[in-house]
Amino acid sequence: MAPLTMYEKIWQAHVVREGTGEPPLIYIDRHLIHEVTSAQAFAGLEAAGRPVRRPDLTFAVMDHSVPTRNRELPVVDQDARLQFEALERNCKQHGILLFDMASPHQGIVHIIGPELGITQPGLTIVCGDSHTSTHGAFGALAFGIGTSEVEHVLATQCLQQSRSKTMHAVFRGARPAGVSSKDLILALIGKIGISGGTDHVIEYGGEAIRALSMEARMTVCNMSIEAGARAGMVAPDETTFAYLEGRPFVPSGQEFQEHVEKWKGLRSDAGAAFDATVELDAAKIAPQITWGTNPGMVTSVTDRVPEPGSFKDPDQQKAAVRALEYMALRAGTPMVDIPVDRVFIGSCTNARIEDLRAAAGVVRGKHVARTLKAALVVPGSRSVKAKAEQEGLDRIFLDAGFEWRDAGCSMCIGMNEDVLPPGERSASTSNRNFEGRQGKGGRTHLVSPIMAAAAAIAGHFVDVRDLGVDVSE
Amino acid sequence: MEPISKHTGVVAPLDRVNVDTDQMVPKQFLKGLTRKGYGRVLFYDWRYLPGEAPNPTFVLNLPRYQGASILLTRANFGCGSSREHAPWGLLDYGFRAVIAPSFADIFANNCRKNGILLITLPEAKMDDLFERCTATDGYKLTVDLPAQLITDEQGLEIHFEMDPYGKQVLLEGLDDIGLTLKHAPEIAAYEQNHHPNATMYRPVDAKTALPAK
């Protein structure tokens, strides 16, 4: 038998039918839903009189619009409240497990899936959110879908899919201290561009990826969509199995061992052919900062804001001119000279316990710069929050002048009150620096948690490697 | 979904690469419970000045492009967020077809589900269309899906590629869910056989899995 990639193995195990004239139908093992992209799907079901086929494989959470403070009070935002109520009603009506705002398990959908063990190797996982690629860190095939597809999965537990191409992204060598998983993925997006992964599923490999914790692998896979890829994946290994053991939805005892044996077979076979391969030397990657208005507009902290003329393609030159105008940056400015107004440590990219530990390590015993207007830490889930508080991380952040909030998507998307005001500049651990993403007229620089923490202390970007603190992730 | 077969309309040129779905429908408009009404907020931050006065420099606000139903744009249109509000907004504004060198993956799926025809053309052909569109006031194109042909009144003829299933869906305004439900016996068989066959599928019982509060 020809050697197969991990993607091909999972794909083959999920094909329900492959007929002529219609795209293949694949089975979906886990469907995650949230308040923003599901209401219209349920309304569609209702209009057609269709039931939810597998409520037991569907999990709901409130995350995008939830307030991150005064959670015990009624939600002020009327529209958001209506969405929460609709989700609650729909879940109740169809027998779907919902983690509502009061649940101790509530959090960003891509943080709680893995945390609860809903996410497992070999599964197909979808959600009406593009950062569903996060779950691929476990060797699952996970991708974002639109609301019509949410409706399709609710009704049929299947999706029409065409087979993706495969890309192998290999990070050779060892990641230097101070360089985090966020820097690895930003460097890759900088190299291949924000459409470099279009039509592909990326499998991440190489020594630098194997050495990463599950939290860090999730950060890498999370941003696969920012390279345009359908999904990102890392082959499951001992790190994966150790993370999963004992989680609520993961089988235990003998059954767990049996699963581990199956999961071990998921990795791409030796000699499996990928449609594309890209290699990066992890040892040569420096901390990354975005300078423009998409995640591919990124450079090293040691670098300068680029000259638009340095791009070959005329469309890219025009885009760079426009981006610098929006970002109010002058070409040639050293990245470390860029001041920041606000710092946001949070999002499905970087709000897991390890991210908070790393950031706390940088701010411990220090204080945010006087010029800073605000610095927010928004844990990715209530479990992360509880754990951080157990470890005293909340005290470290509060003492350093950060705000310590409740779990949600918060200022990554600014659907609640956590918005970046017009003209202000943020150092953000989130995933998108599009125009207006964090707030209309806001200027976002994407960085790792330790780079964001260091910027908060200094009031401008700094090379975290120069700080002389333990910055291991 | 409204079928689309042959459509003639005014063309608007959005000469930018990597237009993301956050620009099409910004986050503050994602709190609706229906699929309707997003045309008014399409390209909100570009289209309106503070106070919602139209931004006179934004292309869709120029008098010559009023009533446009075909959008020309550049590579990687629709990147970023999976929000289906973006195609809902395009459709509600009046766009039935978008022509670009490439589209982002999730966005393209979402458009197909909403009956928006996406046409992919090589860069050189795009440049030609942009030139024609900006040179002639009220420039119109006809997109003929059955013939897979783009034409204008000046004799232009461009053939475009289209996958046969996507074409059929658009032409007939097919209900994907209804089609899939016809395969219900196969889905049921898959559910029956998959688990014992030692693959990854396994039912979930939430009641027993979660620790008691």
Task: Explain the layout of strands and helices.
The complex is a heterodimer of chains A (473) and B (213).
Chain A: H1 6-14, E1 15-17, E2 25-27, E3 30-34, H2 39-48, E4 58-61, H3 78-94, E5 97-99, H4 109-116, E6 124-127, E7 141-144, H5 147-156, E8 158-160, E9 165-172, H6 181-192, E10 200-205, H7 207-210, H8 214-222, E11 231-234, H9 238-244, H10 253-264, E12 276-281, E13 288-290, E14 298-300, H11 314-327, E15 342-345, H12 353-363, E16 374-377, H13 382-390, H14 393-399, E17 403-404, E18 425-428, E19 443-446, H15 449-458
Parallel strand pairs in A: 3-4, 3-6, 4-5, 6-7, 9-10, 9-12, 10-11, 15-16, 15-18, 16-17, 18-19
Antiparallel strand pairs in A: 1-2, 2-8, 13-14
Helix pairs in contact in A: 2-5, 6-8, 12-15
Chain B: E1 6-14, H1 21-24, H2 44-47, E2 70-73, H3 85-93, E3 97-100, H4 105-113, E4 117-120, H5 123-135, E5 140-144, E6 149-151, E7 157-159, H6 164-172, H7 176-181, H8 184-194, H9 206-209
Parallel strand pairs in B: 1-2, 2-3, 3-4
Antiparallel strand pairs in B: 1-5, 5-6, 6-7
Classify the fold: give the CATH topology of the largest domain in chain B.
Aconitase, domain 4
How many strand units of chain A? 19
Largest sheet of chain B: 7 strands, mixed
Mean pLDDT of chain B: 92
- Structural class from helices and strands of chain A? alpha/beta
> What's the SSE pattern of chain B?
EHHEHEHEHEEEHHHH
Structural class of chain B: alpha/beta
Bin the strand percentage of chain A: 15-25%
Name the average pLDDT of chain A.
96
Distance between the termini of chain B: 45 Å
Tell me the number of helical segments of chain B per DSSP (H or I, 4 or more residues long): 9
Unreliable residue runs of chain B: 196-201
Q: Report the CATH superfamily of the largest domain in chain B.
A: Aconitase, domain 4
Assigned CATH architecture of the largest domain in chain B: Alpha-Beta Barrel
Largest interchain contact: A-B, 83 and 62 residues
